[in-house]
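Suppose you are handed only these lines of text.
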Amino acid sequence: MATERRALIMLFGATGDLATRKLYFAMYNLYIKGNIHDHFAVIGTARNKFNDEQFRELVIKSVNSSVKNADKKTLNDFASHFYYEAHDVTDSAHYSVLRDKADELDKKYDLQGNRIFYLSMAPNFFGVVAKNLKTQNVLSTNGGFNRLVIEKPFGRDFASAKALNDALSASFNEDQIFRIDHYLGKEMIQNIEALRFGNTIFEALWNNRYIDNIQVTLAEDLGVEERAGYYDNSGALRDMVQNHIMQIVSLLAMEQPVAFKDVDIRAEKVKALRSLRVYNVAEASVNFVRGQYDPEGKNPGYRQEAGVPSDSRTETFVAGKLLFDNYRWSGTPFYIRTGKKLAGKFTRVDVVFKKPLIDIFAFPQSGSTPLTENVLTIFVDPAQGFSLRVNAKNGDQGFHTEPVDLKFIEDKTRDVPQPYERLIHDVLKGDGTNFSSWQEVGYAWKFVDQIRRVWDIQQPMFPNYQPGTMGPVAADELLTKDHRQWIYKLNQ
Ligand code: NAD
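From them, the structure of the protein bound to nicotinamide-adenine-dinucleotide can be written out as follows.
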């Protein structure tokens, strides 16, 4: 039985892409499961001149585009909790309208002063909204909670991220700020903790004595599409590595938290990130590789995409080697890669264990395949599950070993909540486990800034990879020079 949460959600950017594609659908799912029901209200704000009815139509349309055959009455009841106020976030005087509306709805739905401020709009507005919410007294003061939810990107380097954080901290405490990284809402990313800390066979071996290397791949098959304006100013390092990949890596690298609670988990992630080696120029040059996709047939290369300068130096691919200078990981590299126009759209983690020190089956003429390394693969998406590759005797007459995969893939028909549903639910509960803390964000930027600094002074050899591949040749060489290989290769 779901626990019903009470809150007013004030949504800034209510007519935007994220709200209409993801957020209303997520809230609807929470509604039909009873996590929100009678005691919630949403004030949507944006510059568009909508009335409540037009806004509700937008919400209903958004939900219908994601849910087949949604029950009409349920959907109308859900939408009746939505209200709209046209509002320019830079207009300080107008916040009093939002405050009055919030107070009115608080009484109407008995929300007990609980308020969530969800900023689904360009990050350059985050500071001004946070400031006005406080100075114009939109925050509740009767003992209910005030929580701020913000989307990525959180700055474009450490300095800008710190300035943004200082601006937010003037109005909200760290435990009131929920920085969304939607990868942390994914089932199998959350499962990293379950697999690690729920299984002796993994946690006992989860260190540099038994793990040879760990590989994290976030691959996209599409190009830059309509996001050139944003993407060309960002690039794969800022867009994917600083946030999603660093979050995944910190979950893989951290020590066991004292308890399964947000403060304890965050403390361990921060500790892991503090021991990540920040590279000097020479190290960054050899340990990181960047790429940009070529044209292919009639398909444009990155530099030919609409809105991209013809001499753009923005990377659409990154691969890198990360080293943790701590007792658990010293000598065990984490290889990461992400890019656009790659061989498929998927996210996976491959934990590569060391081979047995001696292969006793490899006697002459044995016919056995040499023992392979055990690999724990976590399939994050599109399939959700994991596999463990082990060496076993095959069924032949002789004694021949071969690798076998023990595999669990989640049933596709099971209703696994989507990331935004989980994350909004976490905000309603006040659970910060699956959000990035400021310290995590700060350490991730300090690492990434060093790579960026080196890349900004070196001329890239772009374009340098064919669409439909797994990136430039140099990304493979990053591992072969260490006598290793990517576990996921093309045509698998
Ligand atoms: P969008 O441009 O589609 O929507 C922006 C919204 O802000 C619109 O409702 C617009 O009317 C409103 N707005 C703009 N200026 C305003 C002003 N001065 N006052 C009041 N309202 C104003 O943006 P989006 O794609 O929905 O992205 C929202 C946020 O989510 C951004 O931080 C973005 O980086 C992040 N994000 C989006 C996605 C996505 O899939 N769209 C994914 C990850 C992160």
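What can we learn from it? The mean pLDDT is 95. The chain has 15 helices and 15 strands.
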